[in-house]
C-alpha cells in the first residue's frame, strides 16, 4: 500500500471517457432523429445499450475475477467505447446505428467492474468510502464537462456546418477521448500485487455520487448478484425486498421512458436547438451533484421511504408538465427557461431517490445477503432501463407525446404504490 497517491492517479484516466460519455449521451437520441428514426425506433435505440450492458457487466466482472486481472479490462472497455462511438458517427442507417448501440453496452462495460475492484485493491479498507467517492467523482466531472462540450460543439450549426455533420464529428471526438483514456490507463495503472478473491458486501453500501443516465451503465458491483439467492429456498430474499426490487424496476422504467422521448420532444415540439437541449441537461446534473452534500441529512431527517415517495411523486407530476410549456404559447426564450427550471427540479429529485434507495436496501436486507441485495437492486434498475424507453417510444409514436409522458408517470405511480405499502 505504499505510494497510494501514485495508484490514485489512474482515476484521472476516467475523465476523458466521462467527457466522451457526457458529450454523446444526448447525441445518441438526437442523431437517431437525424437518421430518420421514428420515435418508436428511438425508444428501441435508447434501450439497446442497456439491453447488453446488464449481462455484459456480470460477464466482464466474472472474467476479471477468474483471470485475476484488472488493467486489461479497463483498457479494453475504453477501446470498446472508442470503437462503438466511431461506428455511431459513421452510421448511415437506423439498423446500423442500433447495432452500434448494442455493441456499446457490450464492449464499454468491460472497464466498470474491474475498475471498482481496482479501487479497493489499491487502498486500505478504512479508505474505501473516500476512494470510491473520489473515483466516482471523476466520472461525474467528465460527464458534466462532456455535456458542456456537446452544447458548445453543436453551435457549429450556426456557422453553416450541417447539424448532421457536426454530430458525426462529435462522435469521432468522443472516440478520440475514449482512446485517450485507454492510453492514460495503460500508462498509469499498475496491476495490484494483492487481489481480493471475494467482494466485501460492505463495499456495496457506500454511496456513489452518480449522475442520472438514459443508458444503464452499472456503477456498483452487479456481478455480486446471485440468482440462487433470489430464487433458492435456503437464502431467499425477504418478501419486502423482492417487492422493493419490483418498485425500483417500475420507477426506473418510468424515468427512462420519460428520458427516451424528452430530448426529441424539446427539439420537435418546443423548437429548441440541439445545443439548448444539452444546456438543459447541464442544469439538472449540476443541481443534482450540488445537492448530494445535503441529501444525506434530508434522508436522515425525513426517512428514506418518505423521501423517495416525495421525490418520485414530484417527478410523476413534472413529467407531463413539460407538455404545458409547449402548448401555452410562451416565447421560445421563456419556454427554454421554464424547461430548465422543471428539469433542474427533476434532477434534484434524482439525488434524493438515489441516496434513499441505497438506504432502503441496506435497511431491508439481511447482513449476509446485503451484497447480493445491492446486486439485485442494480439489476432491477438495469431491467427497468431496458423496458422504459421501449414503452415511452412506442406509446409516443402511436398515441402522441402526451400519452408518452403520462405513461412514464403511470409507471412511477405504480412503483410508489408498492413502496407506500411496504413497512420500512
Global outline: globular
Helix content: over 70%
> What is the CATH first-level class name of the largest domain?
Mainly Alpha
**How many domains in all?**
2
SSE topology string: HHHHHHHHHHHHHHH
Distance between the termini: 40 Å
What's the rounded overall pLDDT mean? Answer: 86
Q: How does the major sheet shape up? A: none
Rg of Cα set? 21 Å
Task: Compile the SSE list and pairings.
Blueprint: H1 4-8, H2 14-34, H3 39-67, H4 71-90, H5 94-107, H6 111-121, H7 128-153, H8 163-188, H9 227-231, H10 239-270, H11 274-302, H12 304-327, H13 332-364, H14 370-399, H15 401-421
Attribute tags:
424 residues, mainly alpha, Growth Hormone, Chain: A, 2 domains, 15 helices
Could you describe the 3D structure shown?
The protein has 2 domains: 1-196, MFS general substrate transporter like domains (Growth Hormone, Chain: A); 225-424, Growth Hormone, Chain: A. The longest helix is centred in the C-terminal third of the chain and has 33 residues, at 332-364. With 424 residues, it is mostly helical. Helix content is 77%, strand content 0%. It has 15 helices and no strands. The model is unreliable at 204-209 and 216-225 (pLDDT under 50). The radius of gyration is 21 Å and the shape is globular.
Write a brief caption for the model.
This protein is an all-alpha fold and 424 residues long. The chain has helices at residues 4-8, 14-34, 39-67, 71-90, 94-107, 111-121, 128-153, 163-188, 227-231, 239-270, 274-302, 304-327, 332-364, 370-399, 401-421.
Amino acid at each position: 500500500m505504499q505510494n497510494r497517491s501514485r495508484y490514485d492517479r489512474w482515476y484521472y484516466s476516467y475523465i476523458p471517457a466521462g467527457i466522451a460519455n457526457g458529450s454523446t449521451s444526448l447525441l445518441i437520441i438526437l442523431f437517431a432523429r437525424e437518421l430518420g428514426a421514428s420515435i418508436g425506433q428511438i425508444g428501441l435505440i435508447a434501450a439497446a445499450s442497456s439491453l447488453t450492458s446488464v449481462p455484459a457487466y456480470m460477464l466482464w466482472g466474472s472474467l476479471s475475477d477468474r483471470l485475476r486481472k484488472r488493467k486489461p479490462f479497463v483498457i479494453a472497455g475504453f477501446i470498446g467505447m472508442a470503437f462503438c462511438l466511431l461506428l455511431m458517427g459513421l452510421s448511415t442507417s437506423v439498423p446500423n446505428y442500433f447495432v452500434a448501440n448494442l455493441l456499446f453496452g457490450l464492449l464499454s462495460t468491460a472497464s466498470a467492474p474491474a475498475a471498482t475492484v481496482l479501487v479497493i485493491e489499491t487502498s486500505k479498507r478504512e479508505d474505501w468510502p473516500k476512494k470510491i467517492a473520489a473515483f466516482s467523482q471523476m466520472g461525474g466531472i467528465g460527464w458534466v464537462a462532456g455535456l458542456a462540450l456537446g452544447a458548445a460543439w453543436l453551435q457549429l450549426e450556426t456557422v453553416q456546418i450541417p447539424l448532421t455533420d457536426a454530430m458525426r464529428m462529435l462522435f469521432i471526438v468522443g472516440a478520440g477521448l475514449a482512446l485517450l483514456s485507454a492510453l492514460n490507463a495503460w500508462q498509469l495503472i499498475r496491476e495490484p500485487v494483492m487481489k481480493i478473491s471475494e467482494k466485501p458486501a460492505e463495499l456495496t453500501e457506500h454511496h456513489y455520487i452518480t449522475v442520472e443516465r438514459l443508458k444503464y451503465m452499472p456503477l456498483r458491483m452487479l456481478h455480486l448478484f446471485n440468482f440462487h439467492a433470489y430464487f433458492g429456498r435456503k437464502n431467499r430474499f425477504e418478501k419486502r425486498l423482492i417487492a422493493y426490487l419490483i418498485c425500483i424496476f417500475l420507477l426506473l422504467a418510468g424515468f427512462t421512458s420519460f428520458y427516451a422521448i424528452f430530448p426529441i420532444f424539446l427539439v420537435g415540439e418546443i423548437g429548441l436547438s440541439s445545443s439548448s437541449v444539452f444546456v438543459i441537461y447541464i442544469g439538472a446534473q449540476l443541481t443534482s451533484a450540488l445537492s448530494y452534500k445535503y441529501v444525506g441529512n434530508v434522508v436522515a431527517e425525513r426517512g428514506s421511504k418518505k423521501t423517495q415517495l416525495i421525490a418520485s411523486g414530484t417527478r410523476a407530476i413534472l413529467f407531463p408538465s413539460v407538455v404545458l410549456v409547449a402548448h401555452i404559447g410562451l416565447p421560445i426564450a421563456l419556454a427554454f427557461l421554464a424547461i430548465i427550471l422543471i428539469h433542474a427540479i427533476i434532477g434534484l429529485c434524482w439525488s434524493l431517490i438515489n441516496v434513499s434507495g441505497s438506504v432502503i436496501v441496506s435497511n431491508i436486507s439481511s447482513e449476509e445477503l446485503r451484497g447480493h441485495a445491492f446486486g439485485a437492486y442494480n439489476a432491477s434498475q438495469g431491467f427497468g432501463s431496458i423496458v422504459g424507453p421501449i414503452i415511452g417510444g412506442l406509446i409516443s409514436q402511436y398515441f402522441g407525446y402526451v400519452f408518452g409522458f403520462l405513461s412514464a408517470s403511470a409507471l412511477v405511480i405504480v412503483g410508489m404504490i408498492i413502496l407506500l405499502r411496504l413497512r420500512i
